[in-house]
Specification:
Blueprint lengths: L1 H26 L12 E2 L6 E2 L7 E4 L1 H7 L16 E4 L8 E4 L15 E5 L2 E3 L12 E8 L3 H4 L6 E7 L7 E9 L3 E11 L4 E12 L3 E3 L4 E5 L2 E14 L2 E15 L23 E2 L8 E16 L3 E19 L17 E20 L5 E20 L3 E21 L4 E18 L29 E17 L4 E12 L2 E3 L10 E3 L2 E14 L4 E13 L2 E6 L4 E6 L2 E14 L4 E15 L4 E2 L14 E2 L2 E3 L11 E12 L4 E12 L2 E2 L9 E2 L2 E12 L4 E8 L7 E5 L5 E4 L4 E10 L1
Parallel strand pairs: 6-9, 13-17
Antiparallel strand pairs: 1-2, 3-8, 4-5, 6-7, 8-9, 10-11, 10-45, 11-12, 12-15, 13-14, 15-16, 16-18, 18-19, 19-20, 20-21, 21-22, 22-23, 23-24, 24-25, 25-28, 26-27, 28-29, 29-32, 30-31, 32-33, 33-37, 34-36, 35-36, 37-38, 38-41, 39-40, 41-42, 42-45, 43-44
Length: 747
């Protein structure tokens, strides 16, 4: 704790130093004709201005959000678009892995637990498949940084990404959007909402994202064999409102037929982390994997009931989610004995998610907040079950089953100590229980390369694993202060705790290994910050500095020479850094935004080792080695960008009396990032960046927009992740997509 105390003092001093010049700048600002719009968020489960909440929050909406997804990208497109937020996946358009302030989980399994919680329309999406539900008709995205254990519970040690979709209303509201681009990209999105009568209204939204296959398979001679996707999703919402009572029913569905991640064997050479001459974005050579197909479906429903009483309101949110599907991949990225490069053996896996069911129930009572204080308290219940079948080309098919049961009670209150100073405190007790059992093992497997009996032929070794049950109860808390320095500048500080529940990982069963478990991790986080609207509300500048310590941090030892996927607890982890969010109306025609996030993370465990890359001399390990294992003490968290920088600019000029011509560009930069727990020259990235561009015309009288767009306009080849057990395999970002988009609103 000594290091934490020193860091807290340092952060507080830096925050104070930052505030002085900014206050002077505000006092000397000149009047501008335009002002920034007020951004409202629900980070504390009630509607508040983003500038009033004593938490580090960033929000995306409007044109910035639309531009990111104009080429039909999945939720991973949010990576690096907000300071401190990163996302990646080795499972194509499903199972995204999110990281906030460097903290996440690089486990690729369908049963993986993550410290970043995804909340969609007030419902937690716990399983990694549910986290990938496509985004459409979205009103706002909120990224809430730091542990959120008081109001949102376990598995929020890093923070929350919260999606709120557009809701029904009594007025007619509709839009249609169509886009076409390179690689056969065709995207359609639309919504319509209106009153049914004085009490009932509806909103129907839909999405169709399509791209042709464009990657050739040289081994089979197939052109355009993989790389495409067909994603369809829909949402129907019915809203009933009568005086002080409302009921919102949300029905949603999703159907994906696409391509899993495309793995590229030996695309980096030993001693280098640059893509080499064997890499060709448009071509691979696969003998397995059935061209890396991917098929998933999910359906869900939620019912939100709100009843107002004298001085308080009662809210109930009931939700049920289901999902299933499968994907297959040639994970060695080539052909054993053929290449590209040295591939010691073929490796193909298929993963199946079987009958996922998730039920959640939340009850919450909240005050109206009209007397200088706010309060809310409630209870939460969570129950989920699913099976995961892993099919390997040699070991056959093995199935494991996971059950998770959670309940919690929570409360939070805010009190105005004076006209300038308010205090917020929260408590939550959570009980979490997980059960694990093994079903069929190694069905259809030969395991011929395992010669235990000396006769050259060995059947898979079926083992009798006991059922596993783990449970834990934890108290999470927070304490925050918010001080209004002026009418447009506030300072805040927040001390908070949280925990990620104990975890069970059974993937090793498919490879004749034992399941592994990890105890719950707990985090203590401190942050200070400033939120300000300066220059007569034309410049918004928000700054936060943070420090956190994690006890018993959960880590996933993946791949390596052991070819495993095992859970471990390291002694501790540490993270420190800061974020800056800026929005500036420079002129009546020019709007600028910029963000910078710095995260310095470190694993702390004197004795913790993991298996490094497989194969003699395959990669250049920089860590100390102990009995063939890499000592990871002092290493950064895996997939934790040290720096994230983003920038947007929009310039518009009037055209006639009712329109404008505009140019919008957005850029994101990702600093040095280690891909694994161990440190190796080949498995680190640096200086990745992507840019986007929109050039178009907007007509205000007829409310339509037509624009040319480009994503990854410089066609960067950025390494997103790697597979290290067989050869130096990597997977990369999406190619440049250029197209045209048309959108029209109706009122």
């Amino acid at each position: 704790m000594k290091t934490m105390n020193k860091a807290l003092v340092g952060l507080a001093v830096q925050a104070a130093l930052l505030s002085a010049p900014l206050m002077a700048q505000e006092q000397s600002a000149k009047k501008e004709t335009n002002t920034l719009e007020k951004i409202e968020v629900t980070a504390q489960k009630r509607t508040q201005s983003i500038q009033e909440v004593p938490i580090s929050i960033a929000a995306l909406s409007g044109e910035r959000l639309q531009a990111i997804f104009s080429a039909g990208d999945d939720v991973q497109a949010l990576a690096n678009r907000i300071p401190g937020l990163y996302a990646e996946s080795s499972n194509g358009r499903v199972a995204p892995r999110f990281y906030i302030r460097g903290l996440g989980n690089s486990d690729f399994d369908l049963a993986a637990s993550q410290p970043v919680s995804i909340i969609m329309d007030d419902v937690v999406m716990e399983n990694v498949i549910l986290k990938s539900f496509p985004l459409f008709d979205v009103q706002r995205v909120e990224v809430i940084r730091g542990p959120q254990g008081s109001l949102f519970g376990r598995n929020t040690t890093a923070g929350i990404v919260k999606f709120d979709t557009a809701k029904p209303g009594q007025s007619f509201d509709a839009f249609v959007k169509a886009a076409g681009g390179t690689y056969g990209t065709m995207n359609f999105e639309g919504a319509v909402g209106n009153a049914i009568n004085d009490e009932w209204s509806f909103r129907l939204s839909g999405l169709s994202q399509n791209r042709d296959d464009w990657v050739a398979n040289d081994f089979t001679g197939e052109e355009d064999a993989m790389g495409g996707h067909h994603e369809n999703a829909g949402r129907l919402q019915l809203l009933y409102e009568n005086n002080d009572f409302s009921a919102l029913l949300n029905l949603h569905t999703r159907d994906l037929d696409g391509t899993a991640s495309i793995f590229r064997a030996n695309a980096v050479s030993t001693g280098s982390n640059d893509l080499n001459s064997s890499y060709d974005r448009d071509r691979v050579s696969y003998d397995k994997g059935d061209n890396n197909f991917q098929k998933y479906r999910s359906h869900g429903a939620s019912l939100k009931l709100e009843k107002g009483f004298d001085g308080f309101s009662l809210t109930s949110i009931t939700a049920y989610e289901t999902a299933d599907g499968r994907g297959k991949a040639d994970v060695d990225g080539g052909v054993a004995g053929v290449g590209p490069g040295l591939i010691p053996f073929d490796a193909v896996t298929e993963d199946q998610l079987n009958d996922l069911k998730q039920f959640t129930q939340e009850l919450r009572v909240a005050s109206e907040g009209t007397r200088g204080y706010d309060w809310q308290f409630g209870a939460f219940f969570f129950d989920s079950s699913f099976g995961v079948t892993s099919i390997d080309g040699l070991y056959g098919a093995s199935t494991v089953y996971h059950d998770n049961y959670t309940w919690a009670v929570f409360g939070q209150g805010s009190y105005d100590l004076s006209e300038q100073l308010s205090l917020t405190g929260g408590l939550r007790y959570t009980y979490d229980e997980k059960d694990f059992r093994v079903g069929a093992q190694n069905v259809g497997g030969a395991c011929l390369f395992l010669d235990f009996n000396g006769d050259g032929i060995t059947e898979c070794q079926i083992q009798d694993y006991d059922d596993i049950n783990v449970d834990d109860g934890q108290l999470s808390w927070e304490l925050a202060l918010n001080y209004n320095l002026t009418n447009s500048t506030s300072l805040f500080s927040r001390l908070a705790s949280g925990f990620r529940a104990q975890t069970i990982q059974g993937r090793n069963v498919a490879f004749e290994g034992a399941p592994t478990t990890a105890d719950a991790e707990t985090i203590t986080s401190f942050e200070v910050g400033m939120k300000s609207d300066l220059l007569d509300n034309t410049l918004r500048l928000n700054v936060a500095l943070f420090y956190y310590e994690i006890d018993d941090i959960q880590i996933s030892a993946i791949g390596g020479e052991a070819q495993g996927n095992s859970l471990l607890n390291a002694d501790s982890g540490e993270g420190k850094g800061f974020e800056i969010d800026l929005e500036y109306l420079a002129t009546d025609n020019l709007t600028l935004t910029a963000g910078y996030g710095y995260s310095d993370t470190e694993l702390q465990d004197d004795d913790q080792t993991v298996a490094p890359c497989g194969g003699a001399g395959q990669c250049t390990v920089l860590d100390p080695m102990v009995n063939g294992q890499a000592l990871i003490d002092g290493n950064p968290f895996p997939q934790s960008p040290k720096q994230i920088v983003n920038f947007t600019a929009r310039y518009a000029v009037p055209m006639g009396d009712d329109g404008e011509f505009f140019v919008f560009t957005d850029w994101a930069f990702q600093g040095k990032t280690n891909l694994f727990l161990y440190d190796a020259v080949e498995f680190r990235t640096k200086d990745n960046f992507e840019g986007g561009l929109r050039i178009g015309y907007e007509n205000f009288s007829h409310d339509f927009t037509v624009a040319l767009f480009g994503r990854n306009i410089t066609d960067e080849d950025n390494i997103k992740g790697a597979v290290d057990f067989n050869n130096n395999t990597v997977f990369v970002n999406e190619p440049r997509i250029v197209g045209v988009e048309f959108k029209m609103n109706f009122y």
